[in-house]
Amino acid sequence: MRRALPIAAAALALFACKGREVTVFEMPAAAGSSGMAGALATDGGMAGSLSLAGESGGGMAGSGMAGMAQGGAPSGGTAGSAGMAGADGEPPGLPCSDNDDCEGWFCEKPGCDAPTGVCMPRPLFPPPEPEPVCGCDGVTYWNDDIRRWFGRSLDSLGECRATARACEFGPDCGVPYDSASCSHLVSPGEGCDYGMGTCWVLPPSCEDTGDRRIWRLCRPSDAEPPPPCVDTCLAIRSERPHAVPGHNECK
Question: Does 27 map to a domain?
Fold first, then answer.
């Protein structure tokens, strides 16, 4: 029996307000989805996965990412070899038009407008290091392995910008298991207020991500006591406005 992963088909919505564009991680220049097309065409494989990192903090909402953190495979998939979630050992590279064709794997397409792709396995243990990628759903994924775990095709390396999906809260993002967070990070010089944010999917835990960037909660600079500084993962997960701290603004 075909076992399709219960991933909701979330259509990209048009938003009247655009989310903030904040460069959190500088990514090296690289080819986007067009560069991945060659890898799919030559050997049916991904052009290599990007790494991730987590941080100290609570777990991801929803059962999907929690299962990933505990070594589980998404519903409908089975644990394959080499740390990949597969479907009865089926080899990658079979043609597909959507995830339903892949029986627990996902349909990786060479571009967001491509009608077909190839079935690829989902990573079982995505790493926690932050190397963001932009999915074809307008969501920024903490790294490429997390994107593939959620079965989204790649739009580009780095954070989503022109195609970023705006949000106020995580459920606005349409990501399965309500696993998305709405980032309200504030760029230097930007007003520290609560505006529309952008959709991110983070690792299940913010511990040990290796991220050394710090952010402060948007509060008056003379607030007592000063708000604690947190790393990027915790700042995004809080879904509250955070800015780069000035001198002595964090305890």
Answer: no
